[in-house]
């Protein structure tokens, strides 16, 4: 285990080259050292000196001594330094606070020019030093808290009775954070993201990690009796004394959503305890005079709330779906009848609150979100049971919602409900309502300073409805009522901004009891409140966003709102390209990279190949506002862009400019670059596994667009974070020499022949020689990780040795340095340089085990400790279409879908069929859905026919073949197995409903161009 000295050393190495001196009259270097063991508020010291090393040694010795004296093991360490100071009169400072939202002051504060008495922003906020009581919405000096913490911090009295004209100093700080693993995280300095680590764009895995963290926190709050610990005000570790039964139910729903993704036993036990308390204590049954049996959730004050029954229905429906049970249907019936009994038969409106004693109306209307939640609950129940009564109640309610213009509330429950309603009743009036509910709200979603997690739920529900609307030609005209580009930009922004509500350890360490709150979510403007319903909303939001990332369509302007730091200055971009700013940027302008139009993000410079103009030129697109988020335009002809109110950089040749910028980005990058060579699933999976594993040692940059051409690699390089520790790229370009000279990988993993080399006629050795040119961009001493099982291994090894590369081999071959010995239901048994090694892999199929040892071999080549990477492998999820296993609900049951639709070649097709053969299908059926393998050259038909032995060996009960090349295989096997052939995916989709049934294990495998991935997305989207 690393020592505290190792942590200090790691931080020192990161800071020594970036910490710059502050000009006089201030101390040149001021360093704040914060240390916590997680059980108590961080211990703080700060040191000032004329040079960095003196300040460092003074502060480091003080905290090291404190850690030693306290006997702390594995502390959290944070170090901030002052990079800017601004003087201000005391009276002026207090007046300025009146314009700052409570707890949103994001600067440090010093009371003297020498920074002898100084506090960081984290200290000020975590000790409520600038927060008054709950009636004061803006920041204010809290003298009592100031003086109490000042005494604890400096062991001397601190008075705030200062003259109005006394100078104080606002401090801009930036820092790093390190735990026992010695991974150093750079922290954001000022602004709304201040104080937390710099994080790359959210991925399905990182979103799942946030879901897991929040759900684990909620599970810990469930007590033995099934009640939750309701929440905390963490500044002083005060419990929230109240309780809300409706929130008890809504939190359960979020926990079940998380369990469906995690399948964690502790979470399931907590869910069952809380559900038992809900059903047996909080829900009360009633019998009406006519004998009708109802059930209501009874809340504090003997109130029955419409929203309470809705929350119960949502939780129980989700539990039925996730656990595949119908035991709760009788209680769901009574709860739904309770909701229906609150509806006015004439108007469709609901009564909101009843007296629990006699069911008299207590309050006809309390809050509008009860309406949307009730309708949403009934729609979810309708989706489970198909009972027409619940749909009828909702449709009647929506007549009232439309007439009352409920969309003006922009409520997330209404968004969720109308999404479900249009699934089952796709009427124009419902789609229009859903659009109105979000269209006028986008500025609020983009500008809202508080994290407000329900905004993400609103946007994601609306996004699902939009997809359905886009697929309905008769109603597609409604999309004219929404700025779609702005919608997706707002959705992405809100998802990433929600990370500012997560209690990262580097933030939690300043509060009274960090271990209570770390890994949870908070509401900053409510005194950093951590309450179970708030955490649940974050969990639901990130769970839905993860699903969106996995399923999102390729729509221009959508995708990750990645902004890895604006690294490019105007002068640098002009110098590298040899261009001229025809429309100059403002002072301080920066860009986060260059990109082609379909991957445009805010802060990037957009370009278009002048040799391949699109049907809609940039000039016309700019008129529609799509260039709004662009930092600038890169072009050869500036004329069409001069009136678009964006900077314009004119260059002699756009393609050459992009290549030059990519080469410059690579030169500026000081981390390690890893290239992965192969075709189809194998290369993509190894790249994804390696990137996930490397994240243990630092941030990892990955491309997000097409990198098959050098220009694609170049623009991706300009957008990848320069501050990252690693870049990982797939490299299968038909222009391998140009690509490798641009990327200059320091490690190359060869999983197989690239698709580009296989297109050329000739023996595989010739293709291997073409692919071996990847080594020509590498320096002597760099590493080549080679698949020892490849027939072309000798060709690759010979080329690697010729370039004086260090070779590490992997595979199942007896001579492999990293050898796969066995793979059994996710358990990988391997041998690394003769020593046994094992890990758990969250992915099915022996080919995934081979990919895992490839990633292990890469880590071994970089001399990284393999044991540290076990956790990422355990949480690894195959990228979309590369072997992920999904449970698809259908016809009152479910079937399993193995999604291998990203790509296909003969070897990956055989691996997928082997995976199908291992499916535990008794007494269920195996179904193979296979599409054409493309780009196999003149021997393509033979490769398809050669699949017959492996296909039959997988013992499928039914085979569905799609595409012209699969027709001959169908003709050969149709007398041996129930086989069906379809011209294309559209033809297959039409017949699919009658060919699958609950209990099936279904493999979908094809090349990407066949379009089978669309079919997989449709199946995964089934209710």
Structural write-up:
- The protein has 1023 residues and is of the alpha/beta class.
- It has five domains: 4-197, no CATH class; 205-551, Glycosyltransferase; 568-658, Udp-n-acetylmuramoylalanyl-d-glutamate--2,6- Diaminopimelate Ligase, Chain: A, domain 1 (3-Layer(aba) Sandwich); 669-875, Mur-like, catalytic domain (UDP-N-acetylmuramoyl-L-alanine:D-glutamate ligase); 884-1021, Alpha-Beta Complex (Protein-Tyrosine Phosphatase, Chain A), CATH 3.90.190.20.
- Helix content is 41%, strand content 18%.
- It contains 37 helices and 37 strands.
- The strands form seven sheets. It has a nine-stranded mixed beta sheet, sandwiched between helices.
- Helix 6 crosses helix 7 (245-262), helix 6 packs antiparallel against helix 20 and helix 11 (369-385) runs antiparallel to helix 12 (388-403).
- It is globular, with a radius of gyration of 30 Å.
- The protein starts with a helix and ends with a helix.
- 50% of the residues are buried.
- Residues 553-564 and 611-627 have low confidence and may be disordered.
